[in-house]
């Protein structure tokens, strides 16, 4: 019987560690040198294992920065304008956590189809139950040159009817990607939900890129649902 190549065995082990949560989405994997030393193999063998994992869509590489675990999408869908709201506002109340105006990282600028130097509104919000427990939290980016006149007062209610009524632009559709992730300290601090979300808590992550009827992207929405604490079907507007 033909022996399984070492690089496939290493790839399978790392795949198992990713699937069991030992490595979380966007965690950096050890360097090739360290993996080669750990498995007592050559760097070429490790490189082939990394290529195998990359081909399977489990990892991604950033030139000069390392290799990282890729988020695994559960589904991708397109929704119409009456399905844009990601929080069930009949059951939960929105609370504004932070509101900033400035530039964003290139990844977000690309998603919004703007230049890196363009100004963007960055909104952080929490969805709260009547018992004041956190149901979900979100970070929203809105390009100022597409949606003008956004202010803090607008952020504790649904932004979509306000955009249409007050700013006279019409939301049309959104593309969504859903994945299962785990909270980490960086995420907790970045989203300002310290002492509300536990480290390594499983979360359902919804990414939503929303478009106006003229085709312009007007929102990048990153929403996380606490799936162990609340029924998702009650938190999301279905």
Helix content: 25-40%
- Runs in which pLDDT lies below 50 for 5 or more consecutive residues are none
Shape: elongated
Number of strands: 9
Return the structural class: alpha+beta
Gyration radius (Cα, Å) is 21 Å
Mean pLDDT: 88
Main beta-sheet strand count, sense and barrel state:
7 strands, antiparallel
Tally of helical segments: 7
Q: Roughly what fraction of the amino acids lie in strands?
A: 25-35%
Query: Which strand order do you get reading across the main beta sheet?
Result: 3-7-8-9-6-5-4
One letter per element, helices H and strands E, the order comes to: HHHEEEEHEEHEHEEH
Describe the structure.
This protein is of the alpha+beta class. The protein has 7 helices and 9 strands. The protein has helices spanning 6-19, 32-39, 43-55, 106-111, 159-167, 185-190, 232-235, and strands spanning 59-62, 66-69, 73-80, 93-102, 120-128, 134-143, 171-182, 202-212, 217-226. It has a 7-stranded antiparallel β-sheet with strand order 3-7-8-9-6-5-4. Strands 1-2 form a two-stranded antiparallel ribbon. A hairpin with a 3-residue loop joins strand 1 (59-62) and strand 2 (66-69). Helix 1 crosses helix 3 (43-55) and helix 2 (32-39) crosses helix 3.
Topology summary:
Layout: H1 6-19, H2 32-39, H3 43-55, E1 59-62, E2 66-69, E3 73-80, E4 93-102, H4 106-111, E5 120-128, E6 134-143, H5 159-167, E7 171-182, H6 185-190, E8 202-212, E9 217-226, H7 232-235
Antiparallel strand pairs: 1-2, 3-7, 4-5, 5-6, 6-9, 7-8, 8-9
Helix pairs in contact: 1-3, 2-3
Q: How do you describe this structure in short?
A:
This protein has 238 residues and is α+β, with helices and mostly antiparallel strands.
């Amino acid at each position: 019987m033909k022996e399984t190549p070492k690089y496939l065995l290493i790839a399978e082990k790392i795949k198992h560690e990713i699937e069991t949560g030992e490595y979380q989405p966007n965690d950096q994997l050890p360097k090739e040198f360290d993996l080669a030393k750990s498995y007592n193999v050559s760097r070429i063998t490790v490189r082939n294992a990394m290529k195998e994992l990359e081909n399977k869509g489990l990892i991604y590489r950033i030139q000069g920065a390392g290799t990282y675990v890729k988020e695994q999408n559960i589904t991708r869908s397109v929704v119409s304008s009456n399905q844009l709201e990601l929080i069930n506002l009949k059951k939960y109340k929105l609370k504004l956590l932070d509101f900033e105006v400035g530039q964003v990282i290139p990844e977000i600028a690309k998603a919004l189809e703007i230049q890196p130097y363009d100004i963007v509104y960055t909104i952080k919000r929490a969805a709260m139950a009547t018992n004041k427990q956190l149901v979900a939290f979100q970070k929203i980016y809105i390009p100022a040159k597409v949606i003008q006149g956004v202010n803090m007062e607008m952020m504790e209610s649904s932004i979509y009817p306000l955009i249409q009524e007050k700013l006279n632009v019409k939301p049309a559709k959104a593309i969504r990607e859903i994945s299962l992730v785990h909270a980490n300290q960086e995420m907790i601090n970045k989203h300002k939900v310290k002492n509300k979300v536990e480290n390594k808590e499983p979360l359902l992550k919804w990414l939503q890129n929303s478009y106006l009827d003229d085709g312009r992207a007007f929102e990048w929405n990153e929403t996380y649902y606490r799936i162990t604490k609340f029924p998702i079907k009650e938190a999301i507007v279905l």
